[in-house]
Each structure stands twice: as C-alpha cells, then as structure tokens.
Amino acid sequence: MAASLATANATCHTRSISLPSRTHPLTAKLEDHLCRLRASSEASSSSSVCRRLSNLTNLYGHVDDMLQLPQTQKSLSHERHENWVEEVIDGSLRMLDVCSNSRDVFLQMKESMQDLELSLRRKRSGDSGMVKEVSKYMTSRKKLNKVISKCYESVKSSTKKCVPVNSDKSNANALVSLLQEVEDTSFSVFESLLCHVSLSKTQSKTSGWSVVSKLLGTKSLSCEGEVEINEVEKLDAMLLRLNSKNVNKGINSEQMKNVLKSLEASEMHIRELEEGLECAYRQLVKARVALLNILSH
After folding, report:
1. CB-based contacts of 98: which residues, under 8 Å, 6+ apart?
2. What is the residue extent of each domain of the chain?
C-alpha cells in the first residue's frame, strides 16, 4: 500500500500541464514574426522601421492569443509561484515603460518640428530671424537627444535583465524560452527605433557641409548604390548646415522651400512611427492584462 501511494505521488509530482507545441499554429505564427523582426534588425530605412513596429504589434497580438489558450492559462496558473513567472511579469512592465517613453520622445519631436515649421512660414525669405529659429530648434533637438540617449540606455539595461530562468518542467521551459525570445526581440525593435531618430555625436558637434559628408559617409549603401538616409537625418543635416551660417544672414527662398519640404516629410514619418507605437502600446497592455488576469485566478 505504501509503495503504491509513493508511486502515485511520484506520478502526480512529475505530471505537467501541456502547452502549445512547436507545431501549434499560434506557436508557428509567433516564431514567424520573431524571424521577421530578427531579419530586419539591420535595416534602418524609414519603411523598414515602420514595418518592424507593425510586426511587433502583430507579434504581441499572437502572444495575447496564446495566453487565451486553456492549456497556457492552466500552466501559468499552476506555475504562478515560480521565479520565471515573476520575471515574465517584470519584463512586460519594462516593455510598457520603454514603449511609453518612446511615445513621449516622438510626441516631443513632432511638436518641435511643427513649431519650427509654423515659425518659418511666418517669416519672409532672407529674414535673419529664420536662422535664429533654426538655431532654437537645434538647441531643443540636442536636449531631446539627451532624452533619447537615456531611453536607449534604459532599453539596453532592460535587455540585460532578460536572462534565462531555470525550471524543472520541460513544458514551462518551452514557454519561458518563447516569451523571453519575444521580449529580447522586442527590446531590439525599440533600440533600432531610438537609434533611427537620434542625433549622432558627429552631427551634434560638427557644423556645415562636413556634417552632411560625414553623415553620408557613415550610412550603408542600398542595392542601387545610393546612400540610405531617413527623413529625420536629412532634416538634421540640412538644419545643422543652416545653423552654421552667420545669424545676421537670412535663408533664401530655395533653402526655405527645401527646409519646409524636409520638415513636412519628417513630420509625416514621425507621425507614422507615433501611430505605430500607439498600436504596439495598446497590444502590450492587452497582453499584460491577460497575463495578470491568469495569475490572479
């Protein structure tokens, strides 16, 4: 009798709740989106960054779908006191903080660009006050760049916290591995996003045409042999050159036209990224709420 009870207890102890296997459709979709995000990690063009944000939103949509599965909910509920569960919860909060901070950065960038555009349209070509407005914008841009740098460091430190958590249950290990892959890859998206709009050290310390030449020299070439520079970088280079002029000189009509055109393109791009971040944020919140709901029952 004692032997049979021991056998029964051992069986119950080693028994684990099944999770979606590697062949499950949702798991396949998650892995597909992870592969897409990793494959585009080196791309820095505007369309590539927007595409990564869209893929990130879709990725967390599939994470939420997986969290709705009965077997996933049972497993998470069963493992709620394990350390790796706490790590997953903490990771989801870090991800929300990073996304929220990134949204604030893009909002400030958009407002700053809109203010400059409005100020320039109020002035005539050749007005010396135009260069002063550009100088004011660049001062604001450099201050914002410090905020971007802090956000970037926050992302880097958060990435370092994404360490594997040991578990004795193979099914739990599979879930941990998948969720941590999602978290690691997601942080890399925010890293590339912040780099995309950062003002490089070369740009912030150098002026004139040398900025443009150095900027172009540091960018990779496209398959057609053309230098890939996003809208924000083009605007930064153009305004840095104008800012290097004597403040008593104005901006001629051709320069004015080019600046306004670049501002409009940059605003449109920033707005698109801002909308992408908003969609990603909503999906991140949804996935975190689903996770917390599971663990609270």
Report:
1. 151, 154, 155, 158, 187, 190
2. 46-160+193-295
Q: Which residues pair with 221 in a beta bridge?
A: 227
The pair of structure tokens assigned to 141 is 């841009």
Kindly state the tokens that stand for 67.
Answer: 């969290």
Single pTM value for the model: 0.78
Q: How far separated are the first and last CA of the chain, in Å rounded?
A: 36
pLDDT in tens, 63-83: 998 888 888 888 778 777 777
SS (H, E, C) the chain: CHHHHHHHHHHHHHCCCCCCCCCCHHHHHHHHHHHHHHHCCCCCCHHHHHHHHHHHHHHHHHHHHHHCCHHHHHHHHHCCCCHHHHHHHHHHHHHHHHHHHHHHHHHHHHHHHHHHHHHHHCCCCCCCHHHHHHHHHHHHHHHHHHHHHHHHHHHHHHHHCCCCCCCCCHHHHHHHHHHHHHHHHHHHHHHHHHHHHCCCHHHHHCCCHHHHHHHHHHCCECCCCCECCCHHHHHHHHHHHHHCCCCCCCCCHHHHHHHHHHHHHHHHHHHHHHHHHHHHHHHHHHHHHHHHHHHCC
Q: Residue 85: name the closest of 296, 295, 274 by CA.
A: 295
Instruction: In whole angstroms, give the CA distance from residue 148 to residue 191.
Output: 10
What is the tens place of the pLDDT at every residue in 25-62? 777 778 887 887 877 765 667 778 888 999 999 999 98
Mean pLDDT, the chain, rounded, equals 76
Evaluate whether 54 touches 278 at the Cβ level (below 8 Å): no
